[in-house]
Sequence to fold (344 residues):
Amino acid sequence: MNHGLDDPSPEGFDSDELDLRTMLHQVVQEVEPRDGTLDYLRKAVPQRRARKRQAVVGMAAAALFIGTAVPALVHVSNSTGSEANPSAIGHASETQGSAGQGKGPDGGESTAGSSPGKTEGKGKGDKKEKEKEGKATGGASTGASQGAGPSATTAVGIPACTAAQLGPASGSSVAPDSTGAVYGTFRVTNVSAASCTVTDPGSVGALAQGSADATKIGAARHTAGDAAAGLPDPSLEAAQLELAPGAAYDVKFAWVPTETCPTPGGDPDPDPTPDPTPTPDSGTTGGTTTGDTGTAPQLATEDGTADGSVAVTYTPATGSGGTSVTVPNACAGTVYWTGVLAAS
Fold:
């Protein structure tokens, strides 16, 4: 038995290594790749390399973004003053420069301790305060009245007026002007102990009476330039009006005639009842009678015109109680009415 080492082969392997190599070759010599494997490798390898490159580029971009954004956010968060604007990164340099580094937004030197951003913010604040003061002054002038007058601005949380809070409406009118127009006012008062808000003027209508022609009578909201020149300008009307306890609001109206009342047919008889002729069986003496003379009343006034009038009615939106004003010697025309006005 030979226990010595075998002579190596020309490739430098001993006999055991050659046997193992031969066995491995025999095992895999029948193994073959699937069809299309080479084409798949030719496509898959470049795609895999491209994905790796994209991942590397994305990581680099993210790192660059973080490296530039974080310092800017740190500067903004460390800036002092209530006017610092952290929502705009582009203003970070302006805020930093105003903190005392001596650099203005245009690159020039600035006074120590001054802040362009703060100055700009202060101007905006002053402008807003002036606008608020202007609005408050305008609201006060619109709702100004003697005593406990209403305010034209509605406070937050004040509910709308209810029928229980508003008393019944009252109406009044004045004598006709040179054109025959009659102006009047409906007033509603807050009779409760709490403030409320009027949001609707209600409605105004006209009702023909006597010989007035209902087909020639109408009602319309007052607008600038209409026939009711004596009514307040529509810009003075309030969409919402706050009423303190005891305060009131007005709705004004104007009756503008378009025609005069007609004259009854024929001239009225100044003495429609003639002296009766005494008869033997009348039972009277001295030219007097005791029975019915057969005369009837005439639908005419002393000036010979027909008796016609118009009832101008007002109904509050809350239904607290309406009222009416009668305009005499009115047969055809239009009632113009306003919205809610502060009581004067």
Remarks:
- The chain has a mean pLDDT of 73.
- The CA atoms of residues 182 and 282 lie 53 Å apart.
